[in-house]
TrEMBL record:
The keyword Nucleotide-binding applies. CDD domains: ABC_HisP_GlnQ (cd03262). Belongs to the ABC transporter superfamily. PANTHER family: AMINO ACID IMPORT ATP-BINDING PROTEIN, PHOSPHONATES IMPORT ATP-BINDING PROTEIN PHNC. It comes from the Bacteria. Signal peptide: none annotated. Residues 2-246 form the ABC transporter domain. This is Amino acid ABC transporter ATP-binding protein. One of its GO terms (molecular function) is ATP binding. Pfam families: ABC_tran (PF00005). It comes from Luethyella okanaganae.
Amino acid sequence: MVYADCVSKSFGSNEVLKSISLEVKRGEVMCLVGPSGSGKSTFLRCINHLEALSAGRLSVDGELVGYREANGRLYELHPKEASKQRRDIGMVFQRFNLFPHMTALENVMEAPIRVKGQRRSDVEKRARELLARVGLAERADYYPAHLSGGQQQRVAIARALAMDPKLMLFDEPTSALDPELVGEVLDVMKELAKSGMTMIVVTHEMGFAREVADTLVFMDGGVVVESGNPREVLTNPQHNRTKAFLSKVL
Ligand code: ADP
Ligand code: MG
């Protein structure tokens, strides 16, 4: 589903991703961990066409996102194709980014109506199902300001799912939440993983990674330091940088 081959990304002289090679198969969950500034968000942004690669090759579901040859020539999807592919990729951020002037239900209905032009009655039925799936059937008519952070983040997940994505990217989805609200969001993500969704999750929740991830990737300074089965990486890290990081977050 996601194939990154020697992907690099620089901002000016700052090389943020240094030849990242990763693969996420359909239905798999990859957790991406690492210190702040290690390039995790940038990697997600490359997958989602929000940043152009500086080198390497990246594809999603067999379709090229970008490819830059050694001579510097860049191949990218036509912008129309790129925005089509972006519709198939759901993204959930640390900050919930809900539209404040819309109810939970309207937030979930917005993209399928505006972007896909689907019928309002069909979209509403599906949006209510999705809100029920994230445990918020009773909150459909609430505005974001009247929902807790955990509820807002669950609406954000339902909103992403409304576009029927084939891949979900999560960038520290629980980092801005009060500790007692983290579990309800992780539970929704666990259910999503069980349903077979392909997911890349940037998180510091090692319990989630251990339980749900097929692969745990530890990044530091723009490189993949190590990756593997989460239980193995967590109980028997091979690199000192991984050990040092884990000792801080576990
Ligand atoms: P992480 O998500 O692991 O904390 P980021 O991918 O956000 O790391 O950032 C990695 C590095 O890239 C940081 O040094 C950050 O300052 C830099 N960076 C990220 N986005 C930009 C940008 N748009 N312009 C310049 N530098 C950026
Ligand atoms: Mg980040």
